[in-house]
Design a protein that fits this description.
This protein has 137 residues and is of the alpha+beta class. The chain contains four helices and six strands, in the order E-H-E-E-E-H-E-H-E-H. This is DUF2000 domain-containing protein.
Length: 137
């Protein structure tokens, strides 16, 4: 069944591999925390081992330059029907959630040194916001 919403994560294309994975993981957690209905039921294998539940719809990961990421951010925050999460360069230097939030709070929206962005919302608007970005290789 195709969902009428979409989850998209955009990661800056000049990051080290570990940074791209870290940013994607954190932003996925933000989407999950922002809308519990996106999470399905726990998994279980035939041996009786239980596993954590996952998203009920695909998560698409895109690559973007710093300029493209800033443009996606501007389009996303201009809409009321899109929920977004950000990850900025400063967060690589912190070690906890409180400090992460403080780094974002210290910057104006148009001055965020973005390295990643997650979006969740209706499929068509998310597609328009992400138009032209390639899927992450």
């Amino acid at each position: 069944m195709r969902s009428n919403t979409k989850i998209g994560i955009v990661v800056r294309d000049d990051l080290a591999a570990w940074q791209r994975l870290n940013v994607t993981a954190f932003l996925s957690g933000a989407v999950a925390g922002g809308d519990p209905s996106l999470i399905g039921e726990p998994y279980e294998d035939a041996s009786g081992n239980r596993y954590l539940p996952m998203f009920v719809q695909p998560v698409l990961v895109y690559a973007a330059s710093a300029g493209q990421l800033a443009a996606v951010h501007a389009r996303a925050v201009a809409r009321d029907d899109i929920r977004a999460a950000v990850y900025i360069e400063d967060m690589f230097k912190t070690g906890n959630d409180a400090d992460n939030r403080a780094t974002v709070l210290a910057r104006a929206s148009d001055g965020l040194p973005l390295v990643g962005l997650a979006l969740h919302g209706p499929r068509n608007p998310v597609d328009k916001i992400l138009k032209g970005l390639p899927l992450h290789p």
